[in-house]
Every structure is written in structure tokens, then in C-alpha cells.
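Quick one: C-alpha cells for this chain, please?
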Amino acid sequence: MRKSPVTLTALAAFAANLAIVLVAFDGAAQEATQLRRLPTQLAPAAVEPVKPSRPQQLQMKTGIRPTGPAKFATGAAGGGPDTPSQLANLIVVPYYDNDDGLPEGFPTHSYCLKNPAGGTPTNIRFYIRNLGGSASGGFQWTPSFPNAGAAPAHVLPSIPSNGQVLITQPIPNGCYTPGFSGVCEFSIHLDDHDEVEESSEFNTYESHCVSPAG
């Protein structure tokens, strides 16, 4: 059998087709290369922080110490009549000082009045004082002796600011518990009916006397 001869036209057509294929392959290769580089090109560039013109520093104060114990303010009190410093303030003050630190209930110390005849105290003595900035007005106060039953209430007229009234209250019979060292307990209640507007409403004071004494 005789082979058909290859014509120049066929060779030219084959060469043209081969060139097209090579161009297409080269284009695909270049596109793939660009895709591999794309993440690197899209990555944000590193930006250095901009330093402020004046550096900002956190400063802490050190070496701060108390200047000393607190002191009460001096001078005239201000405000109206409802200011606590301007209200009355009734308190009970024992007649005797207890500089020796003896237990409560000894005669000539705190409330228990020494019996001139010796023996068991038969009276308690104390001051009702107004420490407030205005007069108290009239009010009622009541001594109480739990072992001897109820005691009568008393009414006092107004006590001026920084004024006081001395009270001597008899101890009722039967107040002392039996025995050589019997105890008479008592309490003092100021302003029973809340008639006085005070800066402090602490108005109950308790103590006792010891028998025998003197």
C-alpha cells in the first residue's frame, strides 16, 4: 500500500494548532502563578505604631502619710434650729468621779452617795445635763429600781444649753439583795414621753450600789 504524501498545507495547519495549544498552556501557567502570589499581595502591610509627641506616663503619688490625729472643728455652729449641733442633748452624769478605777457601786465613786451614818448607801446622786445647743423645754424622767418595784416619775423644767440639774434620789426599801454584799440595781430614764427633740436619743442609764459600804 502506498502512503499518502504529507502536504505543506497540512504541516502548516498542524504548526498553527500547536502554537495555539502552547499559548493557551502558557496563559494557564501564568494565571496559576498569579493565584499563588495573590494571598501574599493581599496581606496587609505591617504598620509601625505612631509614637505620641509627648510620652504619657502613669504617675503615682507616694510618701503620703497622715498629718496627725483628727481634731474637732472650732468656731460658731452654723445652720438652722434643725441642725443636730443646735438641738438639745440630755445626758446623765454621775455625781462622783471614779479616778481610782474602783468597781461600779462603791460610795463616793459614780452614783452611790456615801451614808453619813455609815453602812449601806440610801441615796443615789447624779446630774441631768444638757449638752446641746438649745434649751430642752420641760420633760419627764423616771428612776427605776427593779428589786423594789416601780418608782414615781418626775417632771423637770427646761434645762438651758450647757446647763445641769443636781438630782438626789432616795433608794427604796428592799432594793438590796439579801446578804453581806447585797446589790441594789437601778436605771434612769430621761424624756420618757419624747417631749425633747434631741441630737441623740440615748436616754437610759444603768448602774448599781453595793452593800455594805462606808
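The chain is about 15% helix and 20% strand.
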